[in-house]
Amino acid sequence: MAGARGLAGDLLGRRGARWLHTEGVARRATEAAPTVDAHDRPLLVAAAWLHDIGYADPLRRSTFHPLDGAWHLSDHHWPTLVAGLVAHHSAARFVAAVRGLAPYMHRYDDRRFTTGSLADALTYADQTTGPTGEEMDAEDRMADMLRRHGSDSPNARAHELRAPVIRAAVQRTRQRLDRPGPDAPTALGVPR
Ligand SMILES: [Fe+2]
């Protein structure tokens, strides 16, 4: 989707760890794109570019980056699906609840933002990409996140409920990637 990479670059700056992470997540989302419906693939990749824009200083309102990013996208008339995926990426709702921000998440109250192949693929892309864009095992990524945020952080307090949801999304996406899709060649070399 045109403009997502450019907007992310303008807001986050095209250097440093945050940008490397964003590029890595976009790359992983592109790899995972075959797991979602063809018409949703550009939305998935756009959401990957935009998922962390809420960290940009000018966007700080709630100081919860999934919401700040989603609000900015909604204010600027991005598709609701992109804004909703950003609001809910990596099971953000559990951290929102710990932070007392759950009421603000109701604006993005659609099952597609939390459930199904699209939401799974975005969480997969984020949770298998390290802080500087490197490919990373989801368990290592979560352990690193807990170390960085601290044992008393909202992320740590949400972890018990959030981690299984992240794990399941990553696992389902891997299974979908392993499963040959309708365009995959068969043993006879012709698409099924
Ligand atoms: Fe991220």
Helices and strands, with pairings:
Layout: H1 4-12, H2 16-32, H3 41-50, H4 65-75, H5 80-88, H6 92-98, H7 102-105, H8 111-114, H9 117-127, H10 138-149, H11 154-178
Helix pairs in contact: 1-3, 2-3, 2-9, 3-5, 3-9, 4-5, 6-11, 9-11, 10-11
The structure holds fe (ii) ion (FE2).
Fe (ii) ion binds at residues 21, 25, 51-52, 126.
Overview of this structure, please?
The chain has helices at residues 4-12, 16-32, 41-50, 65-75, 80-88, 92-98, 102-105, 111-114, 117-127, 138-149, 154-178. It has 192 residues and is an all-alpha fold. The longest helix has 25 residues, at 154-178. The radius of gyration is 16 Å and the shape is globular. It has one domain. The two termini are 29 Å apart. Fe (ii) ion binds at residues 21, 25, 51-52, 126. This is HD domain-containing protein. Residues 170-192 are annotated as: Disordered.
Name some characteristics of this structure.
192 residues, mainly alpha, 11 helices, globular, disordered C terminus, binds fe (ii) ion, HD domain-containing protein
Task: Offer a concise description of the structure.
With 192 residues, the chain is mostly helical.
Span between termini: 29 Å
Major sheet: size, sense and barrel closure?
none
Inertia-based shape: globular
| Bound molecule types | fe (ii) ion
Q: Count all strands and give the number.
A: 0
Q: Give the helix proportion (percent range).
A: 55-70%
Estimated radius of gyration? 16 Å
Q: Helices and strands, in N-to-C order?
A: HHHHHHHHHHH
Structural class: mainly alpha
Q: Could you report the average pLDDT, rounded to the nearest whole number?
A: 94
Q: Would you identify the regions where 5 or more consecutive residues have pLDDT less than 50?
A: 184-192
| Total domain units | 1
Instruction: Kindly estimate the percentage of residues that lie in beta strands according to DSSP.
Output: under 5%
Number of helices: 11
Protein name: HD domain-containing protein
Organism: Blastococcus tunisiensis
